[in-house]
Amino acid sequence: MKSEGASILVVDDTPANLKVLVQMLEKRGYRPRPVPSGHHALRAVEYELPDLILMDINMPVLDGISTCAKLKEDDRYRDIPVIFVSALTDTFDKVKAFNAGGVDYVTKPFDAEEVITRVENHLKIHNLHVQLEENYRQLQELEELRDGLVNMVIHDMRSPLLVIRSALGLLLHNLGDQMDRESKEDINDALASANTLTTMINNLLDISRLEDGKMVLKIEKCDVKEIVDSVVKDLSTLSKAHAVTTVCRTDNPSAYCDEEVVRRIITNLLGNALKFTPRGGEICVSVKEGKDRLEVSVQDNGPGISSDYHEKIFKKFGQSGNKTQGRFESSGLGLTFCLLASESLGGVMDVDSKVGEGSRFWFTLPTNAAAQ
């Protein structure tokens, strides 16, 4: 939308002022629409949306400030820039005008060039704002299209990955005794990579469901301490090089949640701790009671995470900033899933960490159905 030929609603109860403003605007190529009152202005915007409004303040029945306030209450008219043109020079009156939603203020008697300059500037700002909103809308549409295509492709990857995993598993089972050590290691590496890809696919699909509010949750009363103990036991093979302990600081470790989702959150957090904590490091999984909440945390004495990355690591493919073997270690999709999953269960999630002082990831779960 160009400023030239823009529709400008001119509101003033004095005919002489209307005439001067209209002539001034017409000379610059604008389309002025003069109206004599606030009530007429409200009807005029319903008939045709103006690009800008020049508004007098002192008008009978419905003054300019009240008219502007009514316009800003309606989503259809909220973004129309309103410039007040008034003989009132008191600072209090100007503050009232800006609080009502005005973008500028010109005092009478006005200078024609000043009015035109202010009109041009605010039309440019308004046009840029409109263009920005349109660009944002188009970006959202493209992101939705991209996410849809990605989800479709990822969903279709599940079947061939299942075939690959099954084939590798059968190969090891049937011919493992006939293979040399190096061949068996190669197949185990391939199987591990296929399992990792499957986990990533499941996380991506679940993250998409959580973002869209379409993930079905089975909420019931669960013993969170039992879930923690089960996860620690499941990962015992991976945790042999670490000192993993569990602590329960509550007599009633029950919460209303989806057991499988909570199990996945704890598995992700403990898995990350095991991955990033050096051999011989200490890891503690704890459950403690808060007000209407249980807090579950996984704390380690690993390298820690800089505060610059605390927010980033919860985003898709976020990176912790810790360098290992010359590369950035990515926290992948696991923490994104954990954050969204904990929020979907009515809780929150965060991290306390400093470089060189280890990390503590924690999330909360409601202890009563009403808080969920």
Walk me through this protein's architecture.
- The protein has 372 residues and is of the alpha/beta class.
- The chain has 3 domains: 7-110, Rossmann fold, CATH 3.40.50.2300; 144-212; 220-371, Histidine kinase-like ATPase, C-terminal domain (Heat Shock Protein 90), CATH 3.30.565.
- The protein is built from 9 helices and 14 strands.
- It has helices spanning 15-27, 38-47, 64-72, 91-99, 112-175, 181-212, 224-234, 259-276, 334-344; strands at 7-11, 31-35, 52-55, 82-86, 104-107, 220-223, 243-249, 254-257, 282-290, 293-300, 318-324, 327-332, 349-353, 359-366.
- The longest helix is centred in the middle third of the chain and has 64 residues, at 112-175.
- The model is unreliable at 324-331 (pLDDT under 50).
Count of all domains: 3
CATH architecture of the largest domain: 2-Layer Sandwich
Order of helices and strands: EHEHEHEHEHHEHEEHEEEEHEE
What is the topology, as strand order, of the major beta sheet?
A: 2-1-3-4-5
Q: CATH superfamily name of the largest domain?
A: Histidine kinase-like ATPase, C-terminal domain
CATH topology of the largest domain: Heat Shock Protein 90
Oligomer: single chain
What spatial form do the alpha-carbon principal axes imply?
Answer: elongated
The helicity comes to: 40-55%
Structure class: alpha/beta
Q: What is the number of helices? A: 9
- Give start-end ranges of low-pLDDT stretches: 324-331
Amount of beta strand: 15-25%
Q: Give average pLDDT, whole number.
A: 88
Largest pleated sheet: 5 strands, parallel
How far from one another are the termini?
A: 48 Å
CATH top level of the largest domain?
Alpha Beta
C-alpha Rg (nearest Å): 32 Å
Number of strands: 14
